[in-house]
Amino acid sequence: MIEYFKPVPFSLFRKDKKAFGDALCQSFRETGFAVVSEHTVDQGIIDRNLEATKAFFALPEEVKAQYDGRDGGGQRGYTAFGTENAKGNAHADLKEFWHTGRDLPVDSPYRTTMADTPSVSEVASFDESTRALYNALDEMGRQILEGVALHLGLPEGWFDDKVNFGNSILRLLHYPPQMSPPSEGTVRAGAHEDINVITLLLGAEEAGLQALHRSGTWLDVNPPEGALVINCGDMLQRLTAGVLPSTTHRVLNPTPERVKFPRYSTPFFLHFNQDYLIDPLPGCVAEGGKAEPAITAQDYLMERLREIGLVKA
Ligand SMILES: O=C(O)CCC(=O)C(=O)O
Ligand SMILES: [Fe+2]
Question: Which reaction(s) does its UniProt entry say it catalyses (predicted)?
């Protein structure tokens, strides 16, 4: 029997980057997902972020509503419970979330499309601890992409100048406890694909995350304590002509024993720079991939945000 999501230790990256990239991408090719153990994101940074996350979501609804990011397509700040729906899904997900974006230099040309993140005054450590986690996951993602580049036969730094000012987003997710059963057909997160290049996910130890294998089976993604879940998004799929697939995934409602427990998970959606033209890699097309027309990261993002209801058509 195939063992899906066998953790790939990040220590291998330091010994042999190509071997790390191959192990990671072998898992991506099979399921679109991989689990990375021994990652180097500082535990203190993770803990401080989680503490600030819990404090923020515990604030009164009207306080959180001051940070509503709906005008900007939900790309920064707060999105209330019951707002986002997965593409093609009639029901909104049973979650609320916060988005922290990149802290750009004052004179950055990317400011025209990338808004600042609101500062949260009610939780003293919020701005600092979310920024620290954003930066740590940004760096971790850059290193993961070195492995991906080597696997694809590209120079190891190939992604560096294509993601260094990317519109990457740290999402703090809160799925509240479900003391009474949710209405028919609603789930914590409906089946969807991620839009970005890769996603680095912390906090998936609380069960519920599943990935749809191409055989049609939903696979439980149950990372060991302290591991990172990494998955390919649509932009990486498009770049690799489908060789590294953006796999459909969802978060199920808790089992009866776990209904009292909230779920806090933290995906970091790593994006390309907005002006990067996503053009399929010739090597992947030669491998038998299916090429789609080139599109800029910004145009692609807007197309997808309309589909999930965060930007009105
Ligand atoms: O909460 C999770 O484990 C996954 C969340 C997710 O897939 C998303 O927000 O895109
Ligand atoms: Fe997702």
Answer: 2-oxoglutarate + O2 + 2 H(+) = ethene + 3 CO2 + H2O; L-arginine + 2-oxoglutarate + O2 = guanidine + L-glutamate 5-semialdehyde + succinate + CO2
240: domain CATH number is: 2.60.120.330
Tell which atom from ligand 1 comes closest to the C-alpha of 175: 1
> Residue 97: inside a domain, yes or no?
yes
Atom of ligand 1 nearest to the CA of 265: 1
Convert the pLDDT of each residue in 169-191 to its tens digit.
999 999 999 998 888 888 999 99
Question: What's the domain range around 99?
Answer: 8-308
In a domain, 2, yes or no: no
Residue owning the nearest CA to atom 5 of ligand 1: 267
Position 129 in a domain: yes
Which residues have any ligand 1 atom within 6 Å of their CB? 171, 173, 189, 194, 201, 204, 209, 249, 251, 265, 267
Give the Å distance between the CA of 301 and the centre of ligand 2. 14
* pTM, full prediction: 0.96
Instruction: Convert the pLDDT of each residue in 225-273 to its tens digit.
Output: 999 999 999 999 999 999 999 999 999 999 999 999 999 999 999 999 9
Give the chain's domain count: 1
Quick one: which ligand is closest to 263's CA? Answer: 1
Whether 282 contacts 291, CB under 8 Å: no
Residue 163 resides in a domain: yes
What ipTM goes with this model? 0.99
